[in-house]
Amino acid sequence: MNRISKILFTLSAFLVSLPVWAQQRFPKPEFETGYVQPFTSQAAPRALFLEYLDIFVLISTLVVVTWFVVKKRSRQGVMWTSVFALLYFGFFREGCICAIGAIQNITLALFDPTYVLPFSALAFFVIPLVVTLFYGRTFCAGVCPLGAIQDLVAFRPIEIPKWLQKILGMIPYLYLALAVLYAATKSEFLICRYDPFVGLFRFDAEFQMLLLGGLFLLVGIFVARPYCRFFCPYGVLLGWMSAFSTKHMKITPSNCIQCKLCANSCPFGAIDEPVEEQGSRRSNVQRLMTYLFFIPLWIGIGGLAGSMLHVPLGKFNKTVYLSEQLVANPELKQDTEHIDARAFMQSGKSMDQLVIEAKEIRSQFYWGGWMLGGFMGLVVGLTLLKLASHRTRNDYEPDKTNCLSCGRCMDYCPVKK
Description:
single chain, mainly alpha, 61% helix
């Protein structure tokens, strides 16, 4: 407990806050109907001490849930901590600030030197990753409100086939790559726009987003945490960190008796069964070298496919989309009902400037498509490599990458301290 506290509080002490200044991006539109532009007022920024309060609550909750998982081995403690996190980070803070959405803030800060990264976004992005590196995905277990709301509805969870889990498990990597691409090109904050639960937290979402959140919860009754396992982009980063965790949750506090109760209790399929040594060492090495040889090929194929998709991907950028509309339909320039076209005409820019800007953005999507596709090719190659490798295991062990540290298996284990 002391070591956990020291790590978290030392990290937070080195973080510094940065002010965020908003400015008018477009000139006020001019109306010819006698309409007078009303005076607009800007909401006061949230008090700085409240940002520090959010970070303090994040650290405290992480400390508590990590203690429940690693030291106390209490599923009940994890559950009640997640209820608190849901009430505070979900309904009280209305899903903002969010570690998952902070991916976009970090990306935009890296690619846009004019963007000032909010202190809270940096803290919420970094702190869970650092804790996960040492103690596994305890953030997922009891701190993330998106995970908590799904966990509470998992009344009859079933384990879906392994092959289907592998296929669906590719989606978060694609979602992460797309979110980074659109944030880097200043096109869209994809994660925030399509967050299925933030509308439930705020009680003000559009009908389709409320429907999406409701569908996730409905599916979550039978397929535990569908968003966490098959969509969450931050879960990809947490999985990478957790794979190297040295103090990860253990199923049994003593010798495993291989009763298989833990594997049957895990609705996530995140417990690896004992594996005997298969084949000779030489044949295993040859098989791994063969799969390693094909990884560059997968990266090249993925990169080429991604670059070929840069045109449809770029259409989600407002500048590119408006440019294509005005070039294809010049009459839209006089359409007073088309808000984007009217704003462009009143901005003072020429069509040539708009086309040049759109061309530059398409170029960004072209190279971004290469990196996106190459990343997905690398993921496919490494996944196949992992499937081809065989590591000998004598006991039932949690899969550190996919284990959410929820503690269910610990309650079912008959071995006690």
